Amino acid sequence: MIANTKTDLVINHINILSMVDANISMNKAIFISEGRITRIDDALNNSCDYPDMIDGKGQYIMPGLVNMHTHLGDNRGDLLLYLVNGVTTIRNMWGYEGFRLRHWLFGTRVFHHLQLRKQIEEGRVVGPSIYTAGPLLDGDPPFFPRFMYLHAVKEKRQIERIIREQVNKGYDFIKLYSTLSRPSFDDIIEVAQKCNIPVAGHVPDSVHIQHVLESKVQSIEHLYGFINPYRPERNIRRQDIKKLAALAAANDVWNCPTLIAHERLANTERQREFESEDHLKYISAKNKQAMRFLMKASNKLFTQKGLKGNHYYMEDFFYIIQQLRSEGAGILLGTDKSVPYVVAGFSEHAEMKLLNHAGLSNFEVLQSATINGARCLKKDNIFGTIKEGKRADLMITHDNPLHNLNTVLNHAGVIKSGVYYSKEKCDAILKRLMNNPSTTAI
Prior knowledge:
CATH superfamily of the largest domain: Metal-dependent hydrolases
Number of helices: 16
Number of domains: 2
Shape: globular
């Protein structure tokens, strides 16, 4: 317990789902000071000492959500959309370091992520806490155009320079991409281990998933390596998936399925349905145009190559998740924000439903969306559960989330680093974003 601190906020008569386990602690009081939980005790009968107390009677509280695969920058209001939907921490999978005209014309990449992370930490900008990769490392030639923030690597000396530079700048991990060669992949793993920085990202096309799992990367994204829609001849046979899932568990490699991205990328058959979703009203006109362009371009790519889109493999993705679950491998919530019709804040709730449909229990879904992200980042001493000393990143719900996942979407309030955003305030922010989707301030 943290003693001798002034209490800034008290939540009384609240039922706590700490995510330490699946038990509910009934009728408690949570004391918050300087952005952290200082005390958890039985509910107070006399609240006169705390005039601004939040009455949580009949309600529940859980940790804020953690999105472990985002691409922050393609919609200016994303920070607020995350916040009002209870997303208090994000892992940004592609770091950018400033303005580039071609990105802006396309409607994307307007943040300097290291600066933004610091501004949020200092309270100068409102939004979720950010853990970010630097510019991604890919093979030569790279998958994306060279004008984007990426490094096309061939030689170990080049890899050493890039990784040491990213470490010195303060990035949190190294991001891998699809066209890396096996030698370059091995060089990245070796140098990153020497520099004590994690590695996460795609399973490169030329590297077998077993080798990636044996290399003990932090996480693999999209379940690529098990399934690769661009190289279906490399898809893993179902009878081999269980063994690889066990290897992921043994080597503590986390898995971020991004099911909503698979469901939507290039899925023109459902585009009209996606266009009609209510939360698109919080997206700028330029960003909607970019979504439509990306949908058309990605569908064209699959068609030209005679390939089936990611959505064709949904049942296979569900099967892989079931095997990962049965073998005890870690599963993360991520949405791949940048894919068409994946909207910040709202897509997390859709992802939770898809994980539920894939076979995870409500508690396991909530684990993927809270404590698992903290454990993957090795920050579970800071956030991810409700305990004394932890950062006060919290969400209040009307019902028990273990019984009703929808209550997380229709929450009763969000607390970020000890600052309380009531449901009414969250709704007011959404109304402002609807009128001006490009806003970044409350």
